[in-house]
Design brief:
mainly beta; eight-stranded antiparallel sheet; seven-stranded antiparallel sheet; 15 strands; globular; binds 2-acetamido-2-deoxy-beta-D-glucopyranose; hydrolase; signal; xyloglucan:xyloglucosyl transferase activity; glycosidase; disulfide bond
Length: 291
């Protein structure tokens, strides 16, 4: 290796080391309005976003930056009252054909009946890994914290700090894991009354329109995607890459206990239990203990 190459290498590492995780408070700075622009608004000092759905259109936003690994955080207050047929989505996606995706979706309901918190994950185009939960609180009365932790070992879905689901890296069993593509962060509110509420039985009652979902404090404490060079950089176990440290590669016993409480009491669908759907050929990760 020549002197110049060494210098270049040192320079590259210096840049990586000093790259600060993104902490950008303002929706107007960190997001594009990619759908139904006239239906979305940033309010207050820029840290609150309203998405609107009416008979004309839904609406949505997309982060300007892509990320690979880290903590993606959002406070959300869902559509109140009769929200049947509406879906509020909050997810990461790489887009493209063999896309990766990590989902939170909130399926509305008629007044007084529970929302469904729907989760899913795609890796290299393979999805069909849904798990669903009832919230243990009224998600329309106040803002709640929906966070995704994504690192080379596992993905964790958190609600108000309680882990509700973990998806471990099962690449050693030939199951793809999202670690080759950066993902954007998206939020949207749309009409899904062909499937969302009681499997499509409850249609949207437009007399309640416009429907509004509110978002606050979007934070991506995450590794910025700079193209394929980020695949190894973001996975590196270095002090700056806190998400790759051993602490985040496995839930603590306390967190495991919290997750068990949620799953024992509020989980309503698990793809790993749906033998009929998979015709008995269950996905290989379903046979693994999560820990
Ligand atoms: C949201 O939850 C995550 C994960 O538990 C936590 O790290 C973060 O600080 C929380 N954000 C807020 C605003 O409470
Ligand atoms: C809506 O309420 C019905 C009746 O309680 C329930 O079966 C269903 O799971 C709830 N959620 C959705 C999104 O359909
Ligand atoms: C829609 O909601 C209105 C009240 O907002 C109610 O009067 C009407 O009966 C509802 N329509 C249906 C089809 O449930």
């Amino acid at each position: 290796m020549g002197k110049q190459e060494v210098l270049l290498l040192v320079l590259v590492f210096a840049v990586v080391a000093f790259e600060q995780p993104i902490v950008d408070a303002k929706f107007s700075n960190s997001m594009h309005f990619n759908w139904g622009v006239q239906h979305s608004s940033v309010v207050g000092d820029g840290d609150e976003l309203h998405l609107v759905l009416d008979q004309m259109s839904g609406s949505g936003v997309q982060s300007k930056k892509r990320f690979m690994f880290g903590s993606i955080e959002m406070l959300i207050k869902l559509v109140p009252g009769n929200s049947a047929g509406t879906v509020t989505a909050y997810y990461l996606s790489s887009s493209g054909i063999k896309h990766d995706e990590i989902d939170f979706e909130f399926l509305g309901n008629v007044s007084g009946q529970p929302y469904i918190i729907h989760t899913n994950i795609y890796a290299q185009g393979n999805g069909r890994k849904e798990q669903q939960f009832y919230p243990w609180f009224d998600p329309t009365a106040d803002f709640h914290n929906y966070t995704i932790h994504w690192n080379p070992r596992e993905i964790v879905w958190f609600v108000d700090g309680l882990p509700i689901r973990v998806y471990r890296n099962y690449e050693n069993m030939g199951v793809p894991f999202p670690n080759q593509q950066g993902m954007w962060v998206y939020s949207s509110l749309w009409n899904a009354d062909n499937w969302a509420t009681r499997g499509g039985l409850e249609k949207i009652n437009w007399s309640g329109a416009p429907f509004v979902a509110q978002f606050q404090r979007f934070r991506a404490r995450a590794c910025k995607w700079n193209g394929p060079v980020s695949i190894s950089q973001c996975a590196l176990d270095s002090p700056g890459n806190w998400w790759s440290s051993p602490t985040y590669s496995k839930l603590s016993y306390t967190k495991q206990g919290q997750m068990k409480w949620v799953r024992d009491n509020y989980m309503i669908y698990d793809y790993c239990k749906d033998t009929k759907r998979f015709n008995g050929q269950m996905p290989p990760e379903c046979f693994q203990q999560q820990y």
